[in-house]
Structure formats: structure tokens, C-alpha cells
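Narrative of activities, Objective 1.

The group set out to show that a structural description can be obtained from nothing but a protein's sequence at a throughput compatible with the screening campaign. Below is one input-output pair from the validation batch, recorded exactly as produced.
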Amino acid sequence: MSTVFLQVGQCGNQIGQEVWKIVDREKHDTGNVFHGRDGKLRSINVDSEPKVVKSLLKETKKSWFHDSNLILGKRGRGTNWALGYHGSRQESENVEDSLLSKTLECLRKEVERCDNFSGIILLHSMSGGTGSGLGSRLCEALRDDYQMPYLMSVVVAPHSLGESPLQHYNSILCLSWLQRYTDCVVLFQNDDVLYRMKRQSKKTDLGSISMFDMNQHIAACLSGVFLPISTLTPSSGFPIGSEPWEMVRSVCPMPSLKFTSINHTSKSKATWETLSTSLLHTIPRQDGSGQRYSCLSSMAAIRGDSTNTFPRFSRLVEDKIKHACSFVDWNPFPVDFWIGAKQPTALPGTASMSLVLNSSSIIDYSSRLLHRSQEMYDAKAYLHWYWKHGCQQEDFEESFETVRTVVSDYSEAVR
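Output recorded for this entry:
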């Protein structure tokens, strides 16, 4: 099963690059899960300006990628969803030269090189103009062109205190497009990532945790789930790369309930009970008003079980997860386990646990985002930047309604 990775904007390319560093260390155990027959990664790097991708290529091996899969523009998208979605006026006049058309044509060729194409994973951010706007446009176009294969978004939400005055608009527009067109959304909120990293490390000052540290943590979370694992590897021992899509089947019980999070930790010389306790300790369990989150479903990927001891502790770990995550009554089997004997080469002698949750925390995030963006919209703040680049009033009103539906659907599911 072949998956194509599409890295869009600065955030998507930086996180993708950290994932590929991990994959490169594990290439002897991943078969052709991430690479084509020619040894090149099934990865397409897209950005509206060249400096980020070019600087990343200096840090890694350019031979990992097809040169034709590096699609770079000459002008940024000004942290504006509308400019990212509709493109510049020059691109509108010459459609064939637009980032969108170049990306879709490149993706078509990459899909043709796949033996058994199964889906696309899009890595991007919600706040940047390229990540949010072009990312949204790509989701729409990909769903139209590839209706049967899976489409997953791995998206990073900005800090609540603000990275840009336009971030709330960008985020709610992007979130609504992801709800409409993707099969699963893996959401990383920068505030939650910082919270988890602080609780896992000895650093008491959040300022000492850099963006690079956060990107590495997100890459570790993704690798904990996406890398081949024994549970899903056929008896032949040759991995088939079904991990991302088995995750979707495990944790997304209904098409409209598709927002997930991944939590990850690794330790050496730790019992499975200690490892699970350490991981669960980092997961927020309630919103700002003290309302406890509920979970619809979960999946735990266990790696480093070289002595096959985890099955004896699985019931204990499952009970701890159930107690910590407060699952809904209607799901009789809310915890799924994947078990792998090997831990990544870079961490010999350690064990890790990656926990994927589909929880009501999306209600809290979506409600806050709705409130802030609606306030700005009612005051008509910054809207002229969106009208200037092709946005219409209907885009905002439909996005508000879509996100309200997300809140309503999850509220009904956890009632």
C-alpha cells in the first residue's frame, strides 16, 4: 500500500523533514513503505517561497527527493488564507503556472509510480497563508480527483496568544475545509504540544523549548504511528504500509467524527505500567472551565517489546487508559493495541508508546476559535485583506456553520 506525503508551507516542510530523518535511520526495516522503486521518497515539497525548502535540503540529503517534486513559488502568501487559496493575480491569469496546478500534476505522476496507491497525507499549518489556504485548496482538489483513496491532514494549530492577527480567520476557514474533504485530521495544537513537552522534560521555562524541539516531538508522534509495526506486518515479514489507514479505521467511528490527536513518550528501563502512566500524565483531561473531556475511541502503538512481555500487562494498561480518558458508553472496545518488537534504531534499549485519541477536546478548541473569529468578523476587522484576494462573505458564513456542526456532532456523540 503506497502513501504519498504532501508537505505544504513552512510548517509542513519542517515537520516532514524531521519525519524523513527518522525514516532514513529505519530504512532497513521500512521496505518500500515510504520509498518508490528508485529509492526516492514519495514526498512532494510545496511552498510559495523557496528559502525554507532550500535551507532544509542543505540539512538533509537532496538525493532523498525527486527534483521535480520540489515545487516552489517566488512570493509568500502573507499569512492570508484567501491569498493561499486563490493564488496571486498573476497565477489567476496563468493557471498552468500556479502552485496548485503544478502540485496536482506532480502528484498525478507520483501516484502513477505507486504499485498500490492507498492515500495521501497532507502536512501543513492552520495559520500560515500557504499551509492554511493552499492546503485547503489542495484538499478540495484532491478529494475531487481521488475520491476512493484516503485523504489525511496532519495540521498544526497556532498558539492561542497569537502568531498573527489573521490566524483566527485562517484557522476557521482551514478547519471547515478539512471537515468537508478529508477522512481524518490529526490535529496538533501548539499550546498542547508545549504543555506535554514541559511535563515530559525537566525544563520549567517554556521559552527554553524551541520550535525545532516541537517539530521533533511532532515527528516522533507521527513516526510512532506511521512506521511499520509487527501487528500489521504480514507473516512474510515484508511491511505493507497500512498503518496510517488502519489508524483511521480504528479511531474514526463515523465520517463526521474525524479529529484525532497523537501523544507519544519513550523511556529506557521502564515497565509498561510506568510508561503508560508517564504518557497519560501529559494528556490534558479537562477544558478551562473544568469540564472533563470524553473519548470516542483510541489506539495505542507499543514499540520495543523485544521480550514479548506487553501482552501480560495489556489489561492493566488498558484499564489505566480507560480510567484516564473517560470513554463513551456506546463503544464496547474503545482501546486498540498495536505491538512492535523493535524500537527505532536511534533509541536502542528503550520502549515507546504512542496513543491516538479521538476526543471531545475538539469541542473546546472549536468553540474558542468560533468565538474569537466571530467577534472579529462582526467587527469587520481585517476583512478587506480577504475580499482583496477573492474571498466572499459566503466563505466565512459557511465555515462558521461547518465548525458549529463539528461542535454539535461531537457534543451529541459524547452525551
